[in-house]
Amino acid sequence: MELRRSLLNTRQHLSSSEWREKSDRICAHLQTWLLFSQAQTVLSYFSFRQEPDLSPLWELEKGRLKQGQLQKQYGFPRCVGKQLCWHLWSPIAAPLVIGQYGIPEPHPECPVVVSERVDVILVPAVSCDDRGYRLGYGGGFYDRLLGSLEWSHKIAIGITFDLGRVRELPIDPWDTRLSGVCTETGLFVVNKSC
């Protein structure tokens, strides 16, 4: 898809300082969102190919953990065949491994996250539209996850830079609408129950 190629190219050409600044603003918006601040278990991702970097969120928990004040647990995906398996991980836990797509993943022996405990899912996106639909990399991992009965009711927020936020994306029948979108300019809730 031409839009995906164009947006990925634009994102790859962000300077490291611009990428860091925009990523930090996204983290700040998430931290001030009431549902995120109250969440105990958050599913996130490790930045790849200059995706917004959310590591300041779990680095903050690392400091709290050292003081015995852990507020959140973070789960991260591991690709298993065509599915995502979620594991709890922290910066002081087991080292990361490189998965089948070259993306850092938790070690398979890290504790598995059960869906019932998850409060918020932060979903990486190349682009998101104003209706809450996302454009990913084309592998369908998040479409399968969010379209499943087990995960479909979870609050899922698309994470992209503002350059990837568009009015309307073309959608397919299997595309699942997100609860909202967060960019460096703000958190835009699509599902009013959030």
List SSEs in N-to-C order: HHHEHEEEEEEEHEEEE
Number of strands: 12
The number of helical runs is 5
Instruction: Show unreliable segments.
Output: none
Largest sheet: spatial strand order:
3-2-1-6-9-11-12
Overall average pLDDT? 90
CATH topology: Rossmann fold
Shape: globular
The amount of helix comes to 25-40%
- Quickly name the level 1 CATH class: Alpha Beta
Q: Specify the CATH architecture.
A: 3-Layer(aba) Sandwich
The biggest beta sheet reads: 7 strands, mixed
| Overall domain count | 1
Question: How large is the share of residues in beta strands?
Answer: 15-25%
Sheet/helix structural class: alpha/beta
CATH superfamily: NagB/RpiA/CoA transferase-like
What Rg is obtained from the alpha carbons, in whole angstroms? 16 Å
Distance between the amino and carboxyl termini: 31 Å
Which structural traits does this protein have?
194 residues; alpha/beta; Rossmann fold; 7-stranded mixed β-sheet; 3-stranded mixed β-sheet; 12 strands; globular
Task: Walk me through the structure.
This protein starts with a helix and ends in a 5-residue tail after the last strand. The relative contact order is 0.17. It has one domain: Rossmann fold. The model has no long low-confidence stretch (mean pLDDT 90). With 194 residues, it is of the alpha/beta class. It is built from 5 helices and 12 strands. The longest helix is centred in the first third of the chain and has 17 residues, at 16-32. 27% of the residues lie in helices and 24% in strands. It has a 7-stranded mixed β-sheet, with helices on both faces. The chain has a 3-stranded mixed β-sheet with strand order 8-7-10, with no helix packed on it. Strands 4-5 form a two-stranded antiparallel ribbon.
